[in-house]
């Protein structure tokens, strides 16, 4: 089979009913179940200095402006709202221009709508890129596009995936797909990329995790459990998890990954066990527990998921966590230790500690470092992984607060003049040559190498609300509002402070737009946090204990 995957259909511009849409998009021959609308959660009083978990959804109460209930319970916003919020109006208008249709139905959003430069693959619908767009539509009670996207990508998962004569795992989700229009033949084709066209030819490990997370967000937001309960969706979840839960030679519960398998999709030294993938893996496992049916097949997966979650949470909280005390412990490590009593279990060389981390680490605060593997620790800060760790409750409440303390203490380094650094610090000089292979796009303080990405604003805002620190999110949003719309919604910013529009940044980048909208709506109505946040599992909260020799 050719590595170029296609799905063909006749063009039909008529708007169909939602039931017809599901059957059309899915093509499995199964009818859609009847939607069941559940009560929406009430709103949460975020100004109280307790985390979202401590309050829990049961404590939600009405707060804020008079328009909130009418705005987010199905009725349109009054025109006066947009008149007083022109940047929000501009964002929605631009976001809607990015919507992609297939058979007359919305199925996603383009990565960017910037016709001033070569489109490359920015004219495709990326799974990870669509997540903030999907959340924005869900918060605005526009559910159809999200449901269609989930069904279409699930259909693509069933395709045979071959890259250079090698067959990929059955559960792999595409990185992206593209709708091709043939107006002469009145014909539409969908092509999907599973990594065979990506930089470095790396399959997207994060796509399947984002799909599960979004399915749970859709279910939580709409109350429609019929979608997740469809046999095809249940099978799709199991196929994704089967790729991750299979037994092998691993001695760690974390997932071993290649460089370029996630948002950082170029060579940036994140191979091994990157924090972004581990946090998404943890969150996807927890979402799957809530979505899987408790039938014979489902029960087997639930047991495997539960066992993995316990091992993964212990491993991450123990070995990926860095604060001042742990940094001092690593500084004093002995090497070449043997047996189960070893303190330096990964045989990390203390001399490999980078100079910058000693100044970067505040007296109060901490974070999950970028990577831990034999004889290697990547001490860089990665924003997405740490924010997802908070939202998924991979981070304990104490660790979540410490991450927020770090962001406040190192505001200039991590936020600067435009939120938000994808990682910190940048690698440069000889290290840049070795790690990136002299990548001209990832020069220091640019793109993935310490660039500032506005899309991360929604993750920061969600983490701030969950930890009871909405003032941090407000400050970051105000920074973004000073420039984003004026700069035509760029993909990323360059410079140590994020002062300059990215050298190769696309304008009208969809997830920059959607990330701002989600942050804005979430801060306005914090009950939306429930669709993307998971409360702490008390059964998964054993005290993080190491061998007694850790403190010696």
Automatic annotation (TrEMBL):
Question: Biological process GO annotation list?
Answer: sucrose catabolic process
- The lineage's top-level taxon is Eukaryota
Q: Which Pfam families match?
A: Glyco_hydro_100
Family matches, as InterPro entries = 6-hairpin_glycosidase_sf (IPR008928), 6hp_glycosidase-like_sf (IPR012341), Glyco_hydro_100 (IPR024746)
List the GO molecular function terms.
endo-alpha-N-acetylgalactosaminidase activity; sucrose alpha-glucosidase activity
Catalyzed reactions: Hydrolysis of terminal non-reducing beta-D-fructofuranoside residues in beta-D-fructofuranosides
Q: Which UniProt keywords apply?
A: Carbohydrate metabolism, Glycosidase, Hydrolase
**What is this enzyme's EC?**
3.2.1.26
What role is this protein assigned? Answer: Invertase that cleaves sucrose into glucose and fructose.
Q: Which family does it belong to?
A: Belongs to the glycosyl hydrolase 100 family.
Q: What is this protein called?
A: Alkaline/neutral invertase
- Which organism is this entry from? Prunus persica (Peach)
- Organism classification: Eukaryota, Viridiplantae, Streptophyta, Embryophyta, Tracheophyta
């Amino acid at each position: 089979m050719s590595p170029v995957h296609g799905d063909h259909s006749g063009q039909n511009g008529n708007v169909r009913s939602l039931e017809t849409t599901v059957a059309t998009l899915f093509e499995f021959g199964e009818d859609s179940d009847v939607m069941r609308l559940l009560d929406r959660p009430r709103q949460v009083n975020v100004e109280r200095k307790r985390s979202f978990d401590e309050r829990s959804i049961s404590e939600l109460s009405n707060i804020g402006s008079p328009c909130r209930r009418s705005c987010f319970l199905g009725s349109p916003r009054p025109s006066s709202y947009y008149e007083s919020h022109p940047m929000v109006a501009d964002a929605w208008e631009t976001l809607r221009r990015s919507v992609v249709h297939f058979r007359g139905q919305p199925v996603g959003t383009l990565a960017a709508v910037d016709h001033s430069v070569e489109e490359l693959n920015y004219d495709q619908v990326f799974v990870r890129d669509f997540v903030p767009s999907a959340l924005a539509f869900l918060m605005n009670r526009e559910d159809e596009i999200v449901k269609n996207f989930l069904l279409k990508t699930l259909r693509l998962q069933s395709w045979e995936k071959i890259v250079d004569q090698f067959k990929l795992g059955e559960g792999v989700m595409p990185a992206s797909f593209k709708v091709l229009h043939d107006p002469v033949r009145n014909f539409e084709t969908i092509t999907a990329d599973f990594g065979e066209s990506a930089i470095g030819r790396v399959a997207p490990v994060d796509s399947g995790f984002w799909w599960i997370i979004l399915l749970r967000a859709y279910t939580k937001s709409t109350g429609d459990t019929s979608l997740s309960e469809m046999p095809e969706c249940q099978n799709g979840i199991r196929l994704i998890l089967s790729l991750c839960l299979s037994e092998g030679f691993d001695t760690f519960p974390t997932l071993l990954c290649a460089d370029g398998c996630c948002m950082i999709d170029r060579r940036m030294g994140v191979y091994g066990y990157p924090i972004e993938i581990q946090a998404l893996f943890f969150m996807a496992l927890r979402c799957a527990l809530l979505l899987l049916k408790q039938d014979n097949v489902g029960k087997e997966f639930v047991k495997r998921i539960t066992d993995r979650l316990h091992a993964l949470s212990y491993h991450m909280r123990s070995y990926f966590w860095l604060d001042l005390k742990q940094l001092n412990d690593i500084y004093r490590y002995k090497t070449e230790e043997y047996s189960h009593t070893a303190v330096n279990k990964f045989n990390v060389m203390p001399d490999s500690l980078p100079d910058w981390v000693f100044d970067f680490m505040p007296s109060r605060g901490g974070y999950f470092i970028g990577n831990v593997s034999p004889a290697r620790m990547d001490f860089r800060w990665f924003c997405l992984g740490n924010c997802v760790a908070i939202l998924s409750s991979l981070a304990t409440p104490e660790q979540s607060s410490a991450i927020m303390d770090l962001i406040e203490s190192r505001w200039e380094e991590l936020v600067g003049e435009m939120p938000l650094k994808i990682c910190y610090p940048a690698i440069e000089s000889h290290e840049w040559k070795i790690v990136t292979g002299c990548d001209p796009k990832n020069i220091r303080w640019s793109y993935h190498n310490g660039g500032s990405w506005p899309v991360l604003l929604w993750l920061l805002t969600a983490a701030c609300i969950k930890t009871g620190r909405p003032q941090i999110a407000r400050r970051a949003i105000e920074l973004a509002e000073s420039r984003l719309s004026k700069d035509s919604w760029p993909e990323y910013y360059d410079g140590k402070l994020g002062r300059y529009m990215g050298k190769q940044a696309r304008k009208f980048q969809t997830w920059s737009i959607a990330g701002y909208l989600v942050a804005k709506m979430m801060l306005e109505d914090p009950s939306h946090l429930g669709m993307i946040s998971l409360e702490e599992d008390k059964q998964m909260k054993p005290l993080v204990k190491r061998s007694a020799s850790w403190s010696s």
